[in-house]
Amino acid sequence: xxxxxxxxxxxxxxxxxxxxxxxxxxxxxxxxxxxxxxxxxxxxxxxxxxxxxxxxxxxxxxxxxxxxxxxxxxxxxxxxxxxxxxxxxxxxxxxxxxxxxxxxxxxxxxxxxxxxxxxxxxxxxxxxxxxxxxxxxxxxxxxxxxxxxxxxxxxxxxxxxxxxxxxxxxxxxxxxxxxxxxxxxxxxxxxxxxxxxxxxxxxxxxxxxxxxxxxxxxxxxxxxxx
Length: 226
Prior knowledge:
This protein is α/β, with parallel strands linked by helices.
């Protein structure tokens, strides 16, 4: 990016939530960035920087660090943020950024709060865009498409260890196989992870997110359309 955007803070209960605004387009677009990459690291990776630049070329883009990560309130691994807390944080960011009815982009692990926001506060957003997301992630008797719990537990036990790659659990190879041999991307991925959250908090948050189930809210998702 040509210049680093100013970081501001929204007050959500007793927590400070860091957010940034990029661009000045006619559309407000809230990017629920999830729990992987802090907003201060996004512009350091060329492909992500291009993606962000494209979004901010036609919209007033609002991005924020979820509670527990990056520049926002870190909290304790003993009490990781719930989906309901994350929705309240989103509302606080929208208020602070003076965004009345934005479009909301909720990719992957941020999907549950996007669904919850659209179902419970439809007047606060104009559109909901879900990217590679699901209302539930883990297997259940009535949800055979979910990830088996034994596989999830095995992965989480190893993914956040400092020697995970040497032990055969390579996050980059799993999530971005085309970049598995890119040393610069790996360096950025490791740095963003280290700045994103402590290992204990990362494990606590991933357990909370993967156990979230908002399928019951899907019939209530109905946001105003332009």
